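Margin note from the TA: students keep mixing up input and output lines. Inputs are the sequences; the output is the structure of the whole complex. Example:
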Amino acid sequence: MTEILFMVFAAVAIGGAIGVVAGRSPIASLLFMVATLASVSGIYVLFEAHFLAAIQVIVYAGAIMVLFLFVIMLLNLGHDYQRDVKTGLWAILAFAVTGLTAGILGRGFLRAGDISFYDRFGAAAAIDQAIAEQGAVGVIAEPLFTDYVVAFELTGLLLLVAIVAAVVLAKPRSAEA
Amino acid sequence: MNEMQQLDTLWFVIFGVAKVLGVFTVVMLGVAYMTLAERRVSAFIQDRHGPNRVGPFGLLQPIADGIKNFIKEETMPGTAARFYFILGPTLAIMPAVVTFAVIPVASPLPTPVGTVDMIVADVPIGILYILALSSLAVYGIVLSGWASNNKYAFLGGLRASAQMISYEVALGLSVIAVLLLAGNVTLTEMVWQQQQLGLWFALPLSLAFIFFVISAFAETNRLPFDMPEAESELISGYHTEYSAMKFSMFFIAEYAHMLTASALMATLFLGGWDIPIWKGDNMFWHEGALIQGFDASGAAIPATPTVLKTLLTLAAFTVKTSFFVLLYIWVRWTLPRFRYDQVMHLGWKVMLPMSLGYVVIVAATMLVLDQVGVPFGLTYGLALTGVSAICTVAFLFFIDRDRIISGAHRRKSGRRTAGRTLASGERA
């Protein structure tokens, strides 16, 4: 059952990703992107990463992509009559990066041998146990606010700096400045 | 989830399907009768009769409306983006109907084959599931506004996206206060924690309750926040070009959203299916057994689920949810619509900083109470209630700025306060 669901989600995710780059209308590309994000979130659920799945949908599909949609519609971006796919050097570069990533993933997959891909480290059982003890959020929150608290706070600071910078850039220059 | 410990797979599937069908039917019927309730209550408020011809008290009116919508002509604007025009209503209705799945509606029901939880899916992420799906609701509105190729529809869609993103932030932050107190994100556990505290979260987290209700109104696009379909400015906003069943789907989505939001408010802040004071209905799965609570030594007291308890708690849940549904209707026919800049001002400059500050205050109070060693119970709840009451009063005085709840000394000193609006207060 899990395998079938995984295949379905994976197929939708890959199909959506192809749709994003191949589509002509930016709105269609955006909706393909949402489909991809939703499928990845479904795969997270299969991996027992419920919290990540929810966050994936809330942050990416529910907020960032809505903002993209807002901008695309407001500025009426894109041309229905011409493809935006870049060719030449860009295409070669894109295939090289994709190939490299696929190679790394494939290597990991082959090394797993006869153990199922998700059960490689006996992770499923351990995660089930942790969720039962700490809840779906606690599993993420505990290491985030203990072991990785410095990195977490620094990321927050970085985002704050980015937001302040964006506001400063977007602000109209007044005469005295 | 929990049923798995009690039911075997076959019965789990049978009860699962039954619950899905049952909840779907009840939500759809609820939506139908909410439209009738809206029309009757608005008629009552405006001293009219309302629809009362079809069946006794107009009770068959929603069915007549449904049939009418099915047989009306579907229009398709010539310049509309056809695919997205049809996709819009579909995307709008989907999140509205599936979010109800994680809300527990009654205490567990005993059956000959095992105990059945009265919740469709007790997912471990509970409230996050609702936040995630309701954040997708905006796509339906924005896409249909854009696909209509009509400036009013388009403006409605843009307003909807800006408004729903803005209030999602305040909504999320007011939920954080609840999460802090409940210590978990599943809604079954939240009901349980309210039973253990002996107080519904509306009291110890009164300010979060107020913020949540306001944000929920904004998220469901109801008056005074119905900017996306403001008929005096935008004809009817994003669904201007829709007719017949496609229009009906937006309508159903809006009311289903209201119903889910009402049920959610009842669950988060009014104890869900809990019956106040009576301890006999407290039930929770703890280490594979249904318990009623812990005695003084910390040992679990087993609970006895009965059919009667399930029915009573279901009634309690229905009453609480109906209260919020009526509140929605009452507010709609009482308050005028905000201006768009007022909506954004309230969302970003009032609700966001205030709810953020409130989370800090709640967390600090809980830290102090934990450090002092107050056990999680009535004293704990009352201490938080006191702190929250102070915050709420301060908030109400700030947001009111002497307009409605000014003290008697203001009136005596003859200071003019009635004519000030939110916008002029903001400039002052």
